[in-house]
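Q: I have 113 residues here and want to know how they pack in 3D. Can you give me a structure?
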Amino acid sequence: MKDFLFVFRADYANQPKSSPEEMQAVTKLWMDWIGGIAAQNKLTSAGNRLTSGGKVVRPKNVVTDGPYTEIKELIGGYSIVKTATMDEAVEIAKGCPIFMIGGNVEVREINPM
């Protein structure tokens, strides 16, 4: 089995405001999707959200505010799943609720050091 990283990307800044009920419904979709992966014993790290702020460290100790606000898509979170193949990881990613808001899932194999 191999570990695969799911990176959740979307244009979060331009999403319409949701009511508390809508937010609760979307949260349930995410929890059901993650729970389904966990029920298959394929979840290594649950759907982790990232905050909107951060820092970028560059060569020569240059530190700037991040993430890059000039790009449209931002990384909103990530999960790590364990599957036998990339194709299997892609099939799992196809069920992600992020597609409802026009987002995408980047699937990357993790190569341990």
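Q: Anything worth noting?
A: The chain has one domain: 2-15+22-109. Strands lie at 2-10, 43-49, 54-58, 62-66, 74-83, 104-109.
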